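Board work, copied verbatim: HAD family hydrolase
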Amino acid sequence: MSGRRDTTRGPRITDLPQRHDALLVLDVDEVILHFIAPFCDLLAEYGARLHFDSFRLTGNVRSVATGTALTGHQLDGVTDQLYAEQERRQRPVEGAREALDRLRRDADIVFLTAMTPSFFDQRRRLLDAAGLPDPMIATERSKGGVVAELAARWRGPIAFVDDLPPNLETVRRSVPDVHLVHLMANAEFRRHLPPMPAGTVRAEGWPGAEAALLQIVAGG
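↓ predict structure ↓
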């Protein structure tokens, strides 16, 4: 064993099944699974609270007793605990499973999550239990690079859905022809969103996201 930490886990892109020309690449946290709500629940167990003062976690998570902001290292520890315990803490975003059941008739779906790959097995079990069996890639690589590799295999329209504008931007730069859709389950953070890449479709829930994705798949 070399001791090198894996930066990606999941099926190889060359092994992914292709049933349709169209492809939907979906982020997981805040798109398919709630992240902010269970993160806040976990923070409360540590005596801390997330303040929705801006579009970031660092500096906005503060001790209830002292008002002191948690450090980045402390936040990383809370996030790791959430991912380790995600099977009992995270729940599907409302309408996600039903929308994907319909979208799957006309497009292939791949989950692309920036979650630390060491938690791949927990997330795979959680998605399977929620009726979301589509292949998942967990990576610490740039999402733009991964989507570019996916785009080399699918010849139809491709859409990328994410909650973070910087991820949408890196995909736009890597694969300009990919359709971008922004979706964030948490309404409080949406008030502080930074600018989106040009042409991004903004959806506030799965009904709007599904309508946009159906139009993209249909070539509209």
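The radius of gyration is 17 Å.
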